[in-house]
Design brief:
By secondary structure, the protein is mainly α. Helix 3 packs across helix 4. The chain has seven helices and no strands. 75% of the residues lie in helices and 0% in strands. The chain has a domain of 104 residues. It is globular and about 60 Å long.
Length: 166
């Protein structure tokens, strides 16, 4: 009867993990998340006088940093293009409403409509992320990308809805 000794790799790796898996912590990942945290702190602190500005800047920063990472890691994924298409839609609605509606009406009606549309948008992104996690696994970068987009949407539309009438 032969006695099989475990491979050297298997004795180092935790049970249930395969040696082909990527390591959990890499220098690239640590540098990326350090940059994210280092940028979020000033973005949050920029809104001390006006919290809406801080929320908007934080959302924009998270969206840009995690969006670039998502586009590099998953260039053909639908998840990479949801915030891009949502931003284009928001800007198109803002420009159209500014061009077609009187100034007071734009702030009252359209600002409130866009602000309250953030609730169904947040629910959609949450459901979409849960389905993506069930199918493909969890991705912190994509989740923060979608969350940052939602925060930027809330901050921008909240600033428009609450802008003082001049």
């Amino acid at each position: 009867m032969e006695h099989k000794s475990p491979d050297a790799c298997q004795s180092v790796i935790a049970p249930g993990a395969s040696p082909k898996n990527n390591p959990r912590f890499t220098i690239k990942g640590l540098l990326f998340w350090t940059a994210v945290v280092a940028g979020v702190i000033p973005a949050v602190l920029s809104g001390q006088q006006d919290p809406t500005t801080g929320i908007f800047i934080t959302g924009v920063y998270l969206t840009v940093v995690c969006g670039i990472a998502t586009l590099v890691l998953h260039p053909r994924s639908f998840d990479a293009y949801i915030p891009i298409c949502g931003t284009i839609l928001l800007l198109a609605l803002l420009f159209l409403s500014a061009a077609l509606l009187p100034m007071g009406k734009m702030r009252d009606t359209m600002g409130n409509l866009l602000f309250f549309s953030s609730f169904p948008l947040g629910i959609y992104l949450l459901i979409h992320n849960v389905r993506r996690i069930n199918n493909m696994g969890f991705s912190l970068v994509i989740s923060i990308y979608h969350f940052g987009f939602w925060v930027a949407w809330v901050g921008l539309t909240g600033a428009i809805a609450n802008a003082p009438i001049t």
